[in-house]
Design brief:
This protein is of the alpha/beta class. The protein has helices at 4-10, 57-72, 88-92, 117-138, 173-181, 197-205, 229-240, and strands spanning 18-20, 24-30, 33-38, 44-50, 80-85, 143-152, 161-164, 186-189, 208-216, 253-262, 269-270, 281-283, 287-291, 294-297, 302-306, 317-324. Bound molecules: zinc ion. Residues 53, 56, 150 line the site of zinc ion.
Length: 326
């Protein structure tokens, strides 16, 4: 059988775009996008994506191994599965992105960016998800999931965490249970819409979606995949439609976003050290950022920071502040 990651890095498709194996049908929908369907009816339509940021290699390798096992027939497939390697040109260059961050472009926001490989790809992936979920529903699937796998650039006090997109409906108990069993240390609940892949799938297709940050980004071949054992086992259970293995260790912490720090003025100053780890706490009253006409202070007894970045373009988010959810 072919190797999805190798073909994608070489920039060539498999010899045939569709094929049948004794246990499943597969279809290559475009660079790095492979659909796998069992021959029996399934409840679940699952999208697993990685490489939306091209240098976040560990989840790409993890996903590729899982697909190899499914193709080889050594692991049963009991969901309709769409595997997406998000940004192949940036994967080849081992860069987060080549022109602009694709994970701000979904939900049609690519139209606000200069046209590039990434805006074209974001649009293509939107279309492919629409077709996948539509066809899965037509074939009888009643549940939709999307997990988008990442690793962080910045160090973090919680090594593995999930980011739940803002959605007006409740998050499914089944997804929250799976996230708990996947060995994450924390879950962050967004309070406003965004251009992420998972916000798009949640909003447009009502998928149960979560962005997973699984550790630190390293080049291909340098990842300690053993660090990712729990998430790997949870993904294995997901594709075979089995109960995930029991969580080990401390319980999951739940955080809500309480402030979005936006860089609105050229004189914007962020008073958070460039070395600050994600989830570093700041006390009430601390001045987080200043600019003409606006000061951001810690309002609660304590707030922790996520993704601080003073160098974003005007109008974009320079960081999120969180509190523990009650
Ligand atoms: Zn990422």
């Amino acid at each position: 059988m072919f190797d999805v990651l190798a073909l994608t890095l070489e920039g060539r498709p498999p010899l045939n775009p569709v094929g049948q194996l004794p246990h499943l049908d597969w279809q290559w929908h475009g660079e790095g996008v492979l659909e796998l369907s069992p021959r029996h009816a399934c409840e679940k339509a699952v999208v697993i994506s990685a490489g939306v940021h091209g240098n976040e290699t560990a989840p790409i390798e993890l996903l590729n191994q899982l697909v190899a096992e499914l193709l080889a027939g050594s692991r049963p497939l009991n969901v309709r599965l769409l595997v997406v390697l998000g940004n192949p040109p940036s994967m080849r260059a081992n860069k987060r992105y080549l022109h602009a961050d694709m994970n701000r472009m979904f939900g049609g926001r690519h139209a606000r960016f200069d046209v590039s490989d990434e805006t074209v790809r974001a649009q293509e992936l939107e279309q492919l998800l629409a077709e996948f979920y539509h066809n899965a529903s037509a074939a009888g699937a009643t549940q939709r999931f999307h997990y988008d796998l990442h690793t962080a650039i910045r160090g973090s006090l919680h090594l593995r965490f999930g980011l739940l997109p803002f959605q007006p409906r409740p998050y499914s108990a089944e997804m929250l249970h799976w996230l708990e069993q996947a060995g994450l240390d924390a879950l962050v609940y967004h309070r406003s819409p965004g251009g992420t892949f998972t916000h798009f799938s949640s909003e447009v297709f009502q998928a149960e979606s979560c962005t997973l940050e699984l550790g630190k980004a390293l080049p291909f071949g340098h990842n300690e995949l053993s660090q990712f054992r729990q998430i790997r086992q949870a993904l294995e259970a997901l594709v075979s439609d089995l109960a995930p293995p029991q969580r080990r260790g401390e319980s999951l912490k739940h955080y809500q976003v309480v402030q979005d720090i936006i860089r609105e003025q050229p004189d914007f100053v962020l008073n958070i050290s460039p070395e600050a780890l994600n989830f570093t706490a700041y006390p009430q009253g601390y001045i987080l950022a200043e600019q003409s006409g606006k000061i951001y202070r810690v309002e609660h007894a304590e707030e922790v920071v996520l993704f601080p970045n003073p160098n974003v373009a005007l109008g974009l988010r320079a960081g999120l502040m969180l509190t523990l959810k009650d």
